[in-house]
Amino acid sequence: MPDPLVIVCISDTHGEHERVALPAGDVLVHAGDVTAHGTERDWRRFLDWFGSRDFAHRLFVAGNHDTFPERAPERAAELAREAGATWLNDSGHRIDGVRFWGSPITPRFLDWSFMREPGPDIERHWALIPDDTDVLITHGPPVDVLDEVERPDGTRERTGCPSLAARIEQVHPALHVFGHIHEGRGRLERGGTTYLNVSTMDSGYRIAHSPVVVEHPRGEIA
User: Fold this and answer.
1) CB neighbourhood size of 54 (10 A)
2) What is the number of domains present in the chain?
């Protein structure tokens, strides 16, 4: 048996990526909110860093703070390719037989980027997730999975996507990596899927958490 694929996961660095110490691995995954203000300059600065990290593969999705790639997706994708990174935008990538799929989409909240209304508007994105996906990378969580936000009055609210949860129950990926809900960082095993909220910042927007490292068995070498 070949050695497993070592996947190093981060998310929600909001322009503070240079403060993150990365362990060794085969695949570096960022689950979105790579910029602080969403400008092209911020996007370029992140890619300069991300694309130069010492990994064989570097995969990422955008998040709701990443305005530039939603406004100019073709240019954003070109810059990612030039930097040596793979931007997953409702798209997939295969590494040593392991099938990755990534999406930046989250449920509507105010007027942030890559947000969609409940029902058909968001479900058309989740319908694109292939049935044979091994590792799913989204910016936000499914409902009831590491998705609680603490409101100013002290109450806690579930903010994950019910439609995403339903699609995951159909696909059954081995691993689902996401962020978005900083307070929800953690790990959960359910229904044969390992869920990882890998938010690197805490609720105060401070770099507070180390990358999460997970191993996944390789399939046939592509």
Assistant:
1) 9
2) 1
